[in-house]
Amino acid sequence: MTGLEIARGYFEEYGRPMLEREFPEVLPQLAAGLCGSGSECFGYDDDISRDHDFAPGFLLFLPGEDAVDRRTAFLLERAYAKLPKSYGGAERSLVGAVGGMRRGVVRTADFFMEKTGTPDGRLSLSQWLTTPQSVLAEAVNGQIFFDGRGDVTQIRARLADMPEDVRRKRLAGHLLLMGQAGQYNYQRCLAHGEEAAAQLAAIRYVQSLMEVCALLSRRYLPYYKWSFRAMRELPVLSDQAAVAEYLLTTPNDPNSAEDKYFMIEDSAKTVIDELMRQDLTRAICLDLEKHAYSVNDSIADADLRNLHVLAAV
């Protein structure tokens, strides 16, 4: 069983019956699910994942104290603590998970405040520009099994919908970095005899390529160790995962470097084709830098458009 399957089964077999039996009047105010930190919240867990921070359980979301007071929250915590310690081959540990609570009773506002800096998913423009995709991914991943009020579902939907102008600003910045690193500096570094710098240029190209592919798919790229798996699952440009892997794992000797340069150019063309398909650019060329500025010019909000093109990266 995957971590999400364990969490849902644990909730349905033990959590929901406990709530219906002991807290029937409070149940309509609650939500339950599994999301946040951890490979299981993305559906990426395997046998290796179980060596730390892996346990049966779920998050029980509480609204504000006006709906569920502190005493009731305390009673819910005690009832949750009494649930079975093992399920689906996983065991609950007395040691807290690294990086904060991943299971148990939590206020909805506290959970989203920790993830995004806002309790209700209403991000300011500054927050949208500076909050990493990986953090936003943790706020909207996983599954919600039950949501009596609908609050958690609404907040997650709000966070999943990046404003279009923000998406374009982020795209513009990463397209510019792709062009500078891959189309311009990779070969120049090699010409200078700086092989290590050339590899840094390839890495910079790949990092921004992955961000661009996620943005063009309207998805959030998770924490780096899961980024390739997430990239291979994107609805568009998933084939770029293989390109990215090749650029990172091959040497920079003359033959390999030539192959890598042509692969970068082919990758850039593929990205440009998708930009044009989504009507995000008016540039007619294969220069990613020109497309970056064209995307930036398409931003509707003048203040955001006039910020430095790299303001969101």
Explained architecture:
This protein has a four-stranded mixed beta sheet with strand order 5-2-1-6, sandwiched between helices. Strands 3-4 form a two-stranded antiparallel sheet. The protein has helices at 3-22, 39-42, 70-81, 108-116, 125-130, 133-140, 151-160, 164-191, 195-216, 227-232, 240-249, 254-277, 288-297, 302-306; strands at residues 31-34, 59-62, 86-87, 90-91, 104-107, 143-147. By secondary structure, it is an alpha+beta fold. A hairpin with a 2-residue loop joins strand 3 (86-87) and strand 4 (90-91). Helix 8 packs antiparallel against helix 12. It has two domains: 3-160, no CATH class; 164-306. The longest helix is centred in the middle third of the chain and has 28 residues, at 164-191.
Main attributes of the structure:
alpha+beta; elongated; 7% strand; 2 domains; 4-stranded mixed β-sheet; 14 helices; single chain; 313 residues
